[in-house]
Fold each of these.
Amino acid sequence: MKYILFIIFFAVHFLGAQIVNKTDGNVPSDTLIIDKGGKDSLKIFKPTINDYQHYTQFSEKKIFDTVFTIDKSYQFTQYNNQDNFGKIQFANIGSGFQDLMFRVNKEQNLALLPTRKSHFILGVDDVKYYDVKTPTTSFIYHNAMKQGAALKTTYTQNVGKNFNVALEYMGLRSQGVYQRELAASNNFVLSSRFNSKNNRYRFFTHYIHQNVNNEENGGIEDLSLFLGDDTRFNNRQNLAVNLTSTDSRFSYRRYYFSQEFQFVNSEKYPFKVRHTIFHQANKYWYKQQGFESFYDSDVVEDYGTSAYKFSKNLSNTFTLLFDKPTFKLEAGVRHQMINLGTDKELPAIVGVSIPLDNKENRFGAVGNLEIKLWDKVDLKSNVEYSNGSTFGNFLRSENNLKLEPIKDYVLDAHVNLQTSKPSFNYLINPSFYQNFNYNFLDAKNESTLEIGGKVNLKWFQSSVFANYFRIENYTYIGADYQSKQSESSLNISQIGGEATFSYWRLNFNTKLLFQSALSEKNLYPMPSFIGRLNAYYQAKAFKDAAEIQTGIKVYYFSKFNSREYFPVLNEFAVSANTASIGGQPIADAYFNMKVKRMLIYAEAQHVNTTFMKNKSFAAPNYPIYDFRLNLGIVWYLFH
């Protein structure tokens, strides 16, 4: 309670000191020009919110969104600043999630990316570029578990009208409430974009370096102590855990440069040449200070107690683009140099040979198509194909159709196909544990067909969606911690919807998902139902100088026999034992406030554990957090 009172006091104090914001409000034009009158009067340029924009490469620009919607409470109360519906977080922030619903992660294509480390990684299409009239800074803060914090700060500034540079840093350190749970990560992004005065040349470039570092434990050693009534174990540090000297580290680095040329008049000859080159390196370490008896495996003598593997990708693409407002067609060629390997050879006694380097040159083609008609039809299609001697064929096709036959009624449908080698984390693994070494470079291509769509309806701000996945040669970690592929296809169906009901200042937001695996259910177990209910009150306050949201939200997923978390790979493995999780509500009570451009979030998370025992798990033997006060602050400064 004292934290909430402090926040309210701080916000009220801030109201009195706040300078009138030049950029608040959504106005239809950009910079306002104020003329004081008179022949030689000085024109004053006054920026509006529309002068502050961001976008990803070659996408449409969006203004900085400071509107106080309930969607932001789902986003800015999470350490990765994303709505994590369909996931369940481990006990400590920065320790990742288990996916409760199947999804395709493109960042794992022809790359090494452990699943539990993947939830804060920025791909090429996630990096933002900016166009701002004045220097702009944003801060996003989250408190941590027990000790530490997470802070993301972005600074961007235009140098002249056509050149922008942006710096972004995210630092996270959270001790956690259980033993061996420390999470410490830092991400740095430097991005820039340039447009020539005649708009015939532009470039996008960025450098990104991300680290995701974690202490690892093997779950609670004795769950009866966690679930029992002994008050000594209300202090979670008193619970013994499996694995007491283990760490995992992941490093992700990319240098990226993309440029676009137009040599002649765009009206007569709408052709452009694009060139994109980037180098990306992923590295994963698993370390122990000494051998531990938790795993049923002999150790490899004279190999040490650390294991390391990496992937590298140098990609170079040239394309020709026909660019009209209603029709775009792009086609070109791509060359890649890919390497997957490790730092030291395994002793012969292991019986598994993993080359230090698995290099190949890949050649392929790319193509993109976009058609827009009458502001009602938007078709986007892209395809990528490449081939190499080591990692075989790669084919990915994404096709999206957006229709708005009636205003505010939108159909968004997609058909995606991908066939490629599995994530590189499944292909090789050197380990000082005898049983966890494997070389699976001869794995068959994993083929995924995704068909789905979403319909947005005007009624109650509602939407319904459905997806179907068919995965051939589905790749997974078996109960023996070896990489395997399914003998028959894995078929998954998903259907759900979201709606918001409002009366006066009261609102009720709900999101539901029903899903099932139609075959090979044991390989990807999942809850049949996931739901989120949110009842809240939203209104102006403090003589309309602020806006508040307060309410209760409940997150729930049905009980299911979960996969187990395997720290050595940072992946989830098919469990040899039946262990179910879910079937427990996770309720949060919250009070949020907006003051000018500052958004303040205060949540009493998992508040139901104040009067009932915590029986919620993120994976077998891994409980989620007990009651905690979660604080988040988002602040936009337009200087």
Amino acid sequence: MQRIEAAVNALAEANLRLDAGPVDYALLAVYFALVLGIGSLARRSVSSSLDFFLAGRSLPAWVTGLAFISANLGAVEIFGMTANGAQFGIPTVHYYWIGAIPAMVFLGLVMMPFYYGSKVRSVPEFLRLRFGRFAHLVNALSFALAQVLIAGVNLYALSTVVNALLGWPLWSSVLVAAVIVLVYTTLGGLSAAVYNEVMQFFLIVAMLVPITLVGLHKVGGWSGLSDRIRAVNPDAAEQLNAWPASNLTGISNATLSVLGIVFGLGFVLSFGYWTTNFAEVQRALAARNMSAARRTPLIGAYPKALIALVIVIPGMLAAVLSPELAAYKAAGGTSTEGVTYNNAIELLIRDLLPNGMLGVVITGLLAAFMAGMAANVSSFNTVFTYDLWQAYVVKGRPDDYYLRVGRAVTVLGCVFAVGTAFIASGYNNIMDYLQTLFSFFNAPLFATFILGMFWKRTTPLAGGVGLIVGTAAAVTVDQLVRHDVLHLAGQGPSFVAASAAFVLDILVSVGVSLVTRPKPDSELVGLVWALTPRDQLKADDTAEDAGWYRNPAILGGGALLLATVLNVIFW
């Protein structure tokens, strides 16, 4: 607590405060009213636990697709990726075009048929069907912990913005945001979260595009930004070119750096996050049918690919337009001004935008962090209620009992998030913290999933043991780096930790599977690729799902093509 208060006081001394006017506060008031109004309206459609946790599986693909992306546009994007843009430059786009799009396409084309077709209510529940109770319990506990930690990151980011820009006390900005998210998710469940996320998506875009355009105009366009970066950065070539991204990975050897990006980020971390993270998958499970569920991540892939430009470029702009951040970067990440890379977006707002537009931007920031937190809280309450409380604590009660539990657990999740908000304050780039969490929780889970889905011999015991060993491997690498046994800079530690978690999880799972008994084939239909009839994996292409533009393969191919073209442009 003392650390975060000191950070906020330093920000105040750095003259980051803005003089918000009546118009700005009016926009904030309208936004809060809309958010709570959507929650109140959504409450009318909640009559069962399925309505509360999965919106009754009734939402159209365009809604779930936009919510899928908006749920990800929290502190991870707005603070983490602009901080990365300020620190590393263009190589940050790898988190999108290598580290997101291929995995989102894989989720839509390959994994969603298994998730949606099995009618599971959560990702841990799929693990229970495939591996049994041991792996299920391990994953449910680790996922619940991860979600409250990440929800805390969104709350921390939001509190620093409100405190620095509007002058609200830290404790009040954290509590106000937590209470608003709590109210609308408790009232309307996932429906309220999803429809708010759709609105928040457009608010976030309305925030990012003007900042990018005004900033580029001020520096003389892309060529002017490039010239400024070359003038002050000895590693300007690495800042302005996507490959080999040695500054991002901390690996000086170009070949090994590319390998770290492609395998550590593009395969392990990316596929681990996008294909097994229930905070994202939950939006697709709320779709009205298999076709809409498969299209959810594919629709989301298009804005995901393009939004990189209005997140990474603002970070780069802040590093040359903000005197404090430029000095911080020139000093190698040390400064007496009280700023860090995390303040890139705030500094850019302060230096570029007038009142009136300030209200739009602050509202966009609030929308982003609240969308991220709502995604974490709504997935936390689902997993806690279904996968922990109902499965292991209180079994066999009527459905309305679990609906009440879900609402109560929403309160618990928000309380935990308030507590974990202070952990994020110890990082000058919260993307370092987030990638560390992903290497702990998502990388081993993806290894277990991919092995269990494509190798029917994988046994129940192997599923649980592999998860534990993989997580332990990632934690070990992290500690070796922290104690200077391994020397890695940038976000290389998380790439190496994720790779170690994946490889060891696979090796241990294979070894354990060879000496233990697998499930019979009859219990694995619909859970393992080779044992599932192909017609069960197909989406309906008739009636409202007809049309070539709704074909999942075409949508997926188009997203991959777009990511490839963007990679070539910024090579």
